[in-house]
Design brief:
Blueprint (H helix, E strand, L loop, with lengths): L19 E2 L15 E5 L2 E6 L3 E6 L3 E7 L2 E2 L5 E2 L2 E6 L4 E6 L5 H8 L7 E3 L1 H7 L5 E7 L7 H28 L8 H41 L16 H31 L8 H40 L1
Parallel strand pairs: 5-10, 9-11
Antiparallel strand pairs: 1-2, 2-3, 3-4, 5-8, 6-7, 8-9
Length: 320
């Protein structure tokens, strides 16, 4: 089996002898490769983008390299942060959207572009970037794969559909309970509806990650000429930061709801004559169970919130 190792930032053509710069928040391909980068190759500034895009700019034709923050143009339009390569006539040769790392300085130094790049904050960027003209050879670097916006929109709609379907399915199951259960059916329907929505989101995450892992496994096996280890590609989970936060919020909200509803349903049922009417027994049992469930759910919610707090603290400690 042939092993393929990627260098810095997953660059499949990484060469430590050639200075390269990468976006701060880079998008990777299915195999984890990072195709978007700037590299100094001899006396050429070479930009690589998705779809096999390759742009060569001679260093002699470059006057300045700007990295500007997001700003608001005079027309009110928001202009995203980007890297700009300007020619000797102060026109834009290349626009590479996104935030770029400090390695750009090494690339410029290798090309003989000293004291570059120039970093512009929002206020100077609004004055200097907006009036710039594009050169005849202007190119825009493809920092996103083709169809990525449509894929994100389709993914969001699919996840929303799974959440709504899971919530409706959970609520429908609760409504199948017999009438003798009483008003407890409403509380159970709410609980199963919330649980079904969270389960739908979890299943969506698991399914998409499993499909992506399977595609990566097939591609890696084809590239290596032999079956790749399945565990490296199919070890997936449906959990995410959103589902974790939503679960913690649902647990925290369930505690006062169960306690108040349980006490209220017990008081209302007993004030109407105790067990003298049809669904009274179901209401009494449901109210008691709701009150009994509140303390363990409160404990679980506190543990989850404390664990999330520790994760945030550990993340800041690692960044320090």
């Amino acid at each position: 089996m042939r092993t393929v190792a990627f260098g810095k930032m997953g660059d499949p053509e990484f060469d430590p002898k050639l200075p390269a710069a990468y976006p701060v928040q880079a998008r990777a391909s299915l195999l984890g490769e990072m195709p978007v980068r700037l590299r100094a190759e001899g006396k050429m500034l070479v930009a690589y983008g998705f779809g096999g895009q390759r742009i060569e700019i001679p260093a002699a034709s470059i006057r300045q390299v700007w990295i500007h923050s997001e700003f608001e143009a005079s027309s009110g339009r928001r202009v995203g942060e980007a890297l700009l390569v300007l020619d000797t006539r102060h026109r834009v040769l290349l626009r590479a959207p996104g935030a770029w790392g400090p390695e750009v300085r090494d690339v410029c130094r290798h090309l003989g572009l000293h004291r570059q790049p120039v970093v512009l904050d929002p206020e100077p960027a609004s004055r200097k970037v907006a009036p710039l003209l594009r050169a005849e050879a202007y190119r825009r670097l493809r920092v996103r794969p083709a169809g990525s916006r449509a894929a994100v929109a389709a993914g969001g709609l699919s996840q929303a559909a799974m959440c709504v379907g899971g919530g409706l399915g959970g609520a429908w199951l609760a409504l199948l309970l017999p009438a003798a259960v009483g008003d407890t059916r409403i509380l159970v329907a709410i609980g199963l509806g919330v649980g079904g929505a969270l389960a739908g989101s979890w299943l969506y995450n698991f399914g998409t990650r499993l499909a992506a892992g399977a595609i990566r496994w097939v591609a890696a096996s084809r590239r290596a000429g032999a079956p790749a280890p399945l565990g490296r590609f199919l070890r997936v989970s449906g959990a995410s930061s959103w589902t974790g936060l939503a679960t913690s919020v649902a647990l925290a909200a369930a505690v006062p709801v169960l306690a108040i509803w349980g006490a209220a349903i017990e008081a209302i049922t007993l004030s109407r004559g105790g067990l003298s009417h049809g669904a009274a027994l179901g209401n009494v049992i449901g109210g008691g169970l709701a009150i009994l469930l509140a303390p363990p759910l409160a404990r679980l919610a506190i543990r989850r919130l404390m664990a999330a707090r520790h994760r945030v603290r550990d993340g800041f400690t690692n960044l320090a």
